[in-house]
Design brief:
This protein is of the alpha+beta class and 192 residues long. The protein has helices at residues 2-23, 57-67, 78-95, 129-144, 180-191; strands at residues 28-32, 36-43, 46-53, 102-106, 111-115, 119-121, 147-148, 157-160, 165-167, 174-175. The chain has a five-stranded antiparallel sheet with strand order 1-2-3-5-4, with helices on both faces. The radius of gyration is 16 Å and the shape is globular. It starts with a helix and ends with a helix. The relative contact order is 0.13.
């Protein structure tokens, strides 16, 4: 059932990407899959990331909430994930935490446009101690601000040209007043 859901979500995301690809004809699909479409495009001479939030991830989210020992506390609907990205990226920018900058938001179509972070994905730099340390520092800054990242996989960090670790995906982050999800963040980070 899970494999069918993932495969169906991948096909659905490719179909849903057609209108965006028409709007941004030169855009390249960066990712997405079961719940989002993520495109790399050029706008006003700068690279931007366009993220369209979709529906198929709701099924996986429901399964995760029922199966995982420490369930994701956040919402899984497209609107919840859209609003969460908007809130967290804005909060991180105000606090000076390295993250992609939110440039535009379209609540009607559930699309966020953010800056493209030039650099290398953290998984390519696991043997680079300063890069891993930078990711740990960014995670600590997020925790100090009261946020748990929840989806703390290493591919959600880009080591920028300035050596800092930038968050690029925060749709599942959660304001963690009690601190119980911050431990999950650390466990996920250390598991790599």
């Amino acid at each position: 059932l899970l494999a069918l859901t993932l495969a169906g979500g991948w096909v659905e995301s490719r179909i849903r990407s057609i209108p965006l690809k028409k709007q941004y004809s030169e855009a390249k699909i960066l990712g997405g899959g079961h719940s989002n479409i993520v495109l790399l495009a050029t706008k006003n001479g700068q690279k931007v990331v366009i993220k369209k939030y979709g529906l198929s991830g709701v099924v996986l989210g429901w399964i995760a909430k029922k199966v995982l020992p420490t369930p994701n506390p956040g919402g899984f609907s497209p609107r919840d994930r859209f609003n969460n990205d908007l809130t967290v990226f804005t909060d991180f920018e105000k606090a000076g935490i390295p993250a992609s900058r939110l440039l535009a938001s379209d609540p009607k179509n559930l699309i966020n446009t953010s800056s493209f972070v030039e650099g290398d994905p953290l998984p390519m730099l696991l043997d680079n101690e300063p890069a891993v340390r930078a990711a740990g520092q960014s995670l600590r800054q997020a925790h100090d601000l009261g946020w748990a990242i929840i989806d703390n996989q290493l591919s959600n960090y880009i080591i920028g040209q300035d050596g800092r670790a930038y968050f690029i995906d925060l749709e599942h982050a959660w304001k963690d007043k009690e601190g119980k999800y911050k431990a999950l963040d650390i466990a996920i980070f250390l598991s790599y």
